[in-house]
Amino acid sequence: MRSKILHALIVLLLGGTLGFGFGFGFASPVEVRAQSLVGLFELEGGARPAGMGGAFVGLAADESALYYNPAGLAFLRELYISGLYQNRFVRADYGRVTLAVPNVGVQFLVLGVGGLVRRDELGVPSETFNYTQMGALLGGGLSLDALGIGMPLAVGAQMKFYRVSTLAPGSGMAFSLTPSVLWVRDRLELGGLPVRSLRVGAIAPNLLSLGITYGSGHRESWGPGFRLGGALLLGGGLAFAADLDARGAFHLGGEWTLGGFDLEGLEPAELSLRLGLSNAGSAITPSIGFGIRFGDFRLDYAFTMHPDLVGAHRISFVAIFGPPNPLLCALRPSACPPDDPLPLPASVR
């Protein structure tokens, strides 16, 4: 029974997808052999990281830090609100809402498939049922320098809740705790090359977890894992990032941010161009993307190619509010000092 449910979800999760924040999408059917049931947390965290091949553990510079490296929340100075809805393969709906402020972030996720058919041993349909995965992330980051320790290091933690709801034998839930660190050094030289920022991060996903126990009594492990990442921010809006995890999967990405573009009726816009490369086993997956930020809003697009699967499109919309935004100042008064320093470089935001 569970194998049939898993096969249906595998097809839905890995099909080519077109999705955007509070929008729509579609997917094409593909056939694959295996994937963890915790697919809800294996989807990419956003269009910007996807366009950079998923290389974001070291960069961890916007609301996606909550997923990739919560220690990066310690260096946020703005309020981020993002939402995403995707329809996958017509039958599956995926949604995510994220709120991140300096030091703290929260995210809610849901993936649902309706109208699945249960068959008996002879293959005769007996009933229909739904399959829903729900998840929540709560993360925080704290800079040691802010505590007066004098180290450019931040530590973070992420609490993860996961629940699957379907027929009683296949329902279950799990919790996990993920620690992370991020080291940041600004304004230095490497071999005579001026560097605006050097960032190195590490995260141990699901380091503490009791696994997932289903209604049937079946139990599956959940983690742990390990991922190391670094990012180099140069002049001219250039940024390069690379991640490597314990399974040997690599993620490489680059971003070039250009400013001074005028959009009629809007504030001057910033354009970011992105390239990425990652692997899933022996399959090499390139990606491309771009981002446009105008005023308090950012639109990101990414296209991920795959040698066997249908290419996936992703578009996200993010609202970004800096001081003196009333909501930001109400949630994090310390982020709104009387004399606000200069904002972060565009390529980091």
Give a brief outline of the structure.
With 349 residues, the protein is mainly β. Helices cover 8% and strands 51% of the residues. It has 4 helices and 18 strands.
Main attributes?
single chain; 349 residues; mainly beta; Porin; 14-stranded antiparallel barrel; disordered N terminus
Description:
This protein is mainly β and 349 residues long. Helix content is 8%, strand content 51%. It has four helices and 18 strands. It has helices spanning 2-14, 47-51, 65-68, 326-331, and strands at residues 18-20, 79-88, 92-101, 104-119, 125-143, 153-165, 172-190, 193-203, 208-209, 212-214, 219-220, 227-233, 238-245, 250-261, 269-280, 283-294, 297-304, 312-321. Strands 2-3-4-5-6-7-8-12-13-14-15-16-17-18 form a 14-stranded antiparallel beta barrel. It is globular and about 70 Å long. Mean pLDDT is 81; it is low at 1-38 and 340-347.
The fraction of residues in strands falls at over 45%
Q: Would you tell me which CATH topology applies?
A: Porin
Computed Rg: 21 Å
Sketch the major β-sheet: 14 strands, antiparallel, barrel
Chain-wise SSE layout:
Blueprint: H1 2-14, E1 18-20, H2 47-51, H3 65-68, E2 79-88, E3 92-101, E4 104-119, E5 125-143, E6 153-165, E7 172-190, E8 193-203, E9 208-209, E10 212-214, E11 219-220, E12 227-233, E13 238-245, E14 250-261, E15 269-280, E16 283-294, E17 297-304, E18 312-321, H4 326-331
Parallel strand pairs: 1-18
Antiparallel strand pairs: 2-3, 2-18, 3-4, 4-5, 5-6, 6-7, 7-8, 7-9, 7-10, 8-12, 10-11, 12-13, 13-14, 14-15, 15-16, 16-17, 17-18
